[in-house]
Amino acid sequence: MFDHVDTRDPIAVEEEVHSIYAALFPEGEREFVPRAFGWAIQCFAGHHQGYLPVDTRYHDLEHTLQGTLCLARILKGRHATDAAPVLTAKGFELGLLAILFHDTGYLKKRNDIRGTGAKYTPIHEGRSAAFAREFLAPKGFADDDLVAVQNMISCTGVNTDLKAIPFRSELERTIGFALGTADLLGQMAAPDYVEKLPVLYQEFAEAERFAIAKLPSTFAFESADELMRKTPAFWESYVLPKINNDFRRLYTFLNDPWPDGPNPYVQRIEANIARLRQKTATSPA
Fold first, then answer.
1. Architecture in CATH of 10-281
2. What is the model's pLDDT at position 2?
3. What is the DSSP string of the chain?
4. What is the pLDDT of residues 192-211, one digit of tens each?
5. Domains of the chain: which residue ranges?
6. pLDDT of residue 218
7. pLDDT (0 to 100) of residue 283
């Protein structure tokens, strides 16, 4: 089983991801992981020119760290099996940047004072991809690398047509699918997932009020209670088919031991779903 890492602590997550990267790629750039985390923390804290600190309460820095930790673990498990295409240091690095920046689309510019970044929920993937390019291009990344990061971020869109993403290699596609998987599993396996669902509902409700773009029907709810009642079906009818089919069962590289051992992320999610069912069964419809 995985060692516990507190995803409320950026340093703890950074150290775990760095240890994975260093073990997989001892020849890799020693400072890459700390630098990438520093960039993400800088952006979420409002220290990037022209942007405010993140003000969404569900899609916050911890949410990003949950997905980041899960992605690193998936890539580690997959690499240990010698699966093709073989993961490269650059692939790991670009995947790390993509997951760290995948929700920067919730950040607001300094003159954007109405509401919170939750109003951008329906378009946040596109805003995240644009923000990642804007931030990383001056750091010296090649255009091909920026496109790869943007393609990977696109995998997190609920209604994204994955076949339409212009991946340039099978490895890029695989890392993108691993990122999409990690984004879903990382948050749903969190110990406080059930308690944070009302906060998530508030983000959806704000997006509906501002109507910057149409909110996907998947996220249309009349109340927090309705969201909670429907979350088990979201897991069974959306997430499981998505990770099993669209994302090619990459989550199974979290099985410990691989290939047939238990999957700690799925186990924690199923426990959360059971808690939700119990909680909603005793609340008025």
1. Orthogonal Bundle (1.10)
2. 85
3. -PPP--TT-HHHHHHHHHHHHHHH-TTS-TTHHHHHHHHHHHHHTT-STTBPPP--SSSSHHHHHHHHHHHHHHHHHHHHTTPSSPP-HHHHHHHHHHHHHTTGGG--BTT--SS-GGGGGGGHHHHHHHHHHHHHGGGT--HHHHHHHHHHHHTT-TT--GGGS--SSHHHHHHHHHHHHHHHHHHHTSTTHHHHHHHHHHHHHHHHHH-SSPPPGGG--SSHHHHHHHHHHHIIIIIHHIIIIITTTGGGGG-SSTTTS--HHHHHHHHHHHHHHHHHHTS--
4. 999 999 999 999 999 999 99
5. 10-281
6. 85
7. 64
